[in-house]
Amino acid sequence: MRVNAGTRSIGGPFGGLLGSILMVIIGIAFIFSSSFIAKQNASLKERCTAEVQATVIGFARSESSDNGSSSSSAVTPVFEYDYKGTTYSSNANSYSSTFKNTFKVGNSYTICVDPDDPMEFYSEDISKSDGTFLKIFRWLGIGLIVFGIMSFIISIVIVVVIGGAVGLAIMELFKKKE
Description:
The chain contains three helices and five strands; from the N terminus they run αβββαββα. By secondary structure, the protein is α+β, with helices and mostly antiparallel strands.
């Protein structure tokens, strides 16, 4: 005789209900996250009004890709630019493996800096990359919500059908005893 102690799983239609609710919650989190990031980008664009020419002097790697030296690791361009007689060197908060193809070291690009904090800047090229990511994230969230709702409806139907069949069987059992 085999006894399985300590592990318990929720299966069947009730597991489907729980899983579908979880999918909807994760989908909503994806949509809210992408909306939050888009709002931050819009706020940065609104603050950065001073247009300057900046030269890419190199790339900074994301913390998660420091140990990997592959060319596909996520990077962000490091820009050097002059604003009101002071030279600044700054990089964006966005990292992508495609930035090495978009930006070339030594090339000049137009960026907009925040007059109150010249270390902060907005780049249309970086924003395009973020926009693609945010669209994918948003559509993934919508897909999870739709799939979760469909799964929830199917699970409810299964619970009702099984519950109805069990209820009819119990009623028949009591009828026979009378």
